[in-house]
Amino acid sequence: MRKGTVAKSWQEHSLEYRMQLAMAKEAAREMSLASAIWNMNRIEGQQRLFGHIRHMEGKIWGGAATQVTITSNGVAREYTNQKDVEEKTALNNEAKYQQMESGGCQLTDPIFVNDLGMHGDGPRIQDVLDGTYEIPDVSTPETREFLEACKYVDGVDYVMCNPMVIELLGRECNQNSLKLDSHATKQFSRPGRSRMDQCISKRCTIDHHQSRRLCFAMTSCDQAGSYDRIVHNAAALALLDLINV
Question: 72, 157, 241, 243: least CB-packed within 10 angstroms?
Answer without folding.
Answer: 72
